[in-house]
Write a structure and sequence with these properties.
Elements lengths: L2 H17 L12 H8 L3 H14 L2 E4 L2 E5 L25 H4 L2 E2 L12 H13 L13 H14 L9 E4 L1 H17 L4 E6 L3 H9 L3 E8 L2 E2 L1 H5 L5 E4 L13 H14 L2 E5 L15 H4 L5 E6 L11 E4 L4 H13 L5 H12 L2 H24 L8 E3 L6 E6 L5 H10 L2 E2 L1 E2 L12 E6 L5 H19 L4
Parallel strand pairs: 3-14, 5-6, 5-8, 8-9, 9-10
Antiparallel strand pairs: 1-2, 4-11, 6-7, 10-11, 12-13, 13-16, 15-16
Helix pairs in contact: 1-3, 2-3, 3-14, 5-13, 6-13, 7-8, 7-12, 14-16, 15-16
Length: about 475
């Protein structure tokens, strides 16, 4: 028996014990060394099996602690002992009690971070000396310094610390940029946005006084021909994993966008959404890493990597008038992220805990992405398509004809599964067709199976009757 078969055998054995109730939520498993001895296999085999089960949502492993069974991992409908497969259709009347799965996009695996690393980071914040002073509007230098290191390692460019500004989430960062452009131009800025796109970002831009121009999105990201046809001061793009459709902008397309921006004096606001999570294909350099003319304002944050409730993002501004305007707007608004939060994040970055966490959740998200791909490969639903699976922590499901996305969202909610309607991301209605957005960052693999059962049942039911 080869190594992969041995790992599969250990995985199947543990799954069976979870599904038949022998192992329940919170129960510890033997150490990898002791179980390897009992089974007569190499310890590496058990380590690999535990890692797979962790990624599938059956176990949660922690360095220096026993692996434990995750709550909700056992007793999935339609799964017999020792087997793994799709659950049968769930009756709507029973679903709210049995399911209660939140698959709305934007919720990451918050609890996946090591307890030890998380507590150590907050202790560092608690141990920081108290001082009689106001917070720096640009953010703590310690955090900004660590962000420069992280950008150099992960995104291929190293700005100066003075170019990095801390913001209260991506929406606040976008409103900051819009406000700065309005001040610089002396009028409401015209800003092109992807359609469909980041709806909270759209609201942030308009609340800061911007006029939005919707530009369609294609397989290579924002449609450059459509963008060239409009007169705008800036464009907001999510090139690494377009939100929500998931298209990845190729390098050639990125260079063409930057060349057009430089030629017409347009600012490119790069929302580096989901750049940390690539499940397929090679990493693509950030627009900021390709920018030689100082036209890119780069946005990043911790909402999808750690916890959206931290409300911490950052803006990297270019040299020149635009960068100075954004910095002035930041200074005028004052500090917005609590210093203990900034100290905590700086500690996670400096100690390597943040990168260890990313390694863990990348594996988890890849397992869930693969599960979605397998489940949707042969559904028998004509025209059903899964998109946005090359990266990130959500999937988009689209289909021709009925039912509408809203109808599927409503039926799924009645069955205890929360989703988002793709149409809600559109500025021009009807551009994307019928579909839903399903987040898988915070659900276990059994929960994901149950949610997919409900979604597929709702799509089948709507396609065979009134939508």
């Amino acid at each position: 028996m080869d190594q992969s078969s041995k790992v599969a055998a250990v995985v199947a054995r543990v799954r069976a014990l979870v599904h038949d109730g022998t192992l329940g939520a919170g129960d510890p498993l033997p150490s990898t060394r002791s179980l390897a001895g009992e089974l007569g296999v190499a310890r590496g085999t058990v380590v690999a099996a535990y890692e797979q089960l962790d990624g599938e949502g059956y176990l949660r492993t922690r360095q220096g602690a026993a692996a434990r069974v995750v709550a909700g991992a056992g007793g999935a409908p339609g799964v017999s002992r020792g087997q793994r497969g799709p659950a049968p259709d769930v009756a709507p009347a029973e679903a709210p009690e049995r399911l209660g799965v939140d698959c709305r996009p934007g919720i990451p695996a918050v609890a996946a971070i090591s307890d030890r690393d998380w507590r150590a980071a907050w202790r560092a914040a608690a141990d920081a000396p108290l001082r009689n002073a106001l917070s720096e509007p640009a953010g703590l230098p310690a955090l900004r310094e660590q962000l420069v290191v992280q950008l150099g390692l992960a995104r291929g460019f190293s700005p100066s610390v003075s170019q990095v500004l801390v913001a209260a989430g991506t929406s606040e960062a976008l409103s900051l940029v819009a406000e700065a452009l309005g001040t610089l131009l002396g009028r409401a800025p015209r800003i092109a946005v992807e359609d469909p796109g980041y709806r909270s970002g759209h609201r942030a831009l308009t609340s800061a006084g911007a006029d939005l121009v919707a530009v369609p999105v294609g397989p290579d990201g924002v449609d450059l021909a459509a963008l060239a046809a409009v007169d705008v001061d800036a464009v907001v793009v999510s090139p690494t994993h377009q939100y929500p459709l998931g298209s990845v902008m190729p390098v050639g397309h990125r260079r063409a966008l930057l060349a057009h921006a430089s030629a017409v004096g347009m600012v490119v606001v790069e929302d580096d959404y989901d750049s940390e999570f690539r499940h397929r294909g090679s990493p693509v350099p950030a627009l900021a890493a390709l920018d030689t003319d100082g036209v890119v304002v780069h946005l990043g944050g911790f909402s999808k990597t750690l916890d959206p409730r931290l409300r911490c993002a950052y803006v990297v501004v270019p040299a020149g008038p635009v960068g100075e305007a954004v910095r002035s707007a930041r200074t005028a608004r004052g500090a917005v992220v609590a210093e203990p939060v900034q100290v905590t994040l700086a500690h996670l970055l400096r100690t390597g805990a943040f990168r260890r966490h990313l390694g863990r959740v990348r594996r988890d998200y890849t397992h869930r992405r693969e599960r979605i791909a397998v489940r949707l490969a042969d559904t028998g639903i004509p025209g059903l398509e899964a998109r946005a699976l090359t990266g990130g922590l959500h999937a988009v499901l689209t289909w021709p004809g009925t039912p509408t996305g809203a109808a599927v969202v409503t039926r799924a909610a009645a069955d205890g599964v929360l989703l988002a309607d793709l149409a809600d991301y559109e500025l021009e209605r009807g551009r994307s067709g019928n579909g839903i957005v399903l987040g898988y960052g915070a659900v276990t693999l059994p929960e994901l199976d149950r949610a997919l059962d409900v979604v597929l049942t709702a799509v089948r039911a709507g396609s065979s009757g009134p939508g």
